Amino acid sequence: MAFIRAFGSYVPSLVADNTEVAARCGCDPEWIRTASGIEERRVASAEETVAEMGARAALDCLQRACVEASRIGLILFSSGSTEQRFPGAGVEAALKLGLAGTPVIDLPMASAGSLFAMALASQLAAVYGEVLVIASEKMTPVVWRQPVDRNTAILFGDGAGAVLVSSEAGTAEVLRAVLHSDGEFAADLRLPFEGPLHMNGPVVILQAARKIPAVIAEALQCNGLAATDVESYLMHQANSNLIVRVARSLGVAPDKFYSNIARYGNTSSASMLIAAKEWSQVAGFGAGRYVVFAGFGAGFHWGALVVRGISF
Fold first, then answer.
1. CA 272, 276, 278 angle in degrees (round to 5)?
2. Is 71 in a helix, a strand, or coil?
3. Which residue among 16, 122, 197, 307 is least enclosed by CB atoms within 10 Å?
4. What is residue 169's predicted lDDT score, i.e. its pLDDT?
5. pTM for the model
């Protein structure tokens, strides 16, 4: 058994609204909002590296869980925007947390990385006890690089999220995860080390709109649940229009899908955990209530994870 103890997040203080981004991209601010649901996003400074933001999100998570960093047995660090090929940002974040010697696994996965890391953590907690999942992304330097592609430059922001998965106790029990990967469309969403982000928007949206509802339904079936049995859905914050399409495909009200994309934009693999931290403050896990996490990203990788709130 594995349990979720707490979530954490960190977002930079600098805000870039649609007026500023539209000026960069040569487009209308209202078009950005209509196309994506985004109104503003956070922009990291030079000092706010992927590792630094990840460490800050992790500290927030540990404080909320009332767990000392020294108890962490394993760190899973997800990012698709690290500043170098190797080593990954995870070891630097661990050092900032005072965890030299603690094993770290870096997952170079955009968007779906935190979902895959949570699923892995739920299995590895039996061995390592307290598993800290961190997802951190610094996307604005990537998408604002000249020449600017307005279709991607309008979408992304910077930030980090974290979740502590434990073998001992928590506010929710992890039940079952379903994960998938398919390289057929790998060229349609990719970020080379040298070169701009490439996203074939129509293909990505079409595949996401098909695969996310299907994998959620698969995960629910594995747990003997219907979509209407779920209290809340916490999904990768890619596009508000996509979130509404997924809700309608499942036959549930869109307001069951917590969304903060209007304020942060798409923070890639960090987005689901940033949203989960905020959701936990305004709603949180109710005893016996079901929550579904879901993500889709480059690769393509996609999946869903079902948890159930527990009482103390």
1. 120
2. helix
3. 16
4. 86
5. 0.97
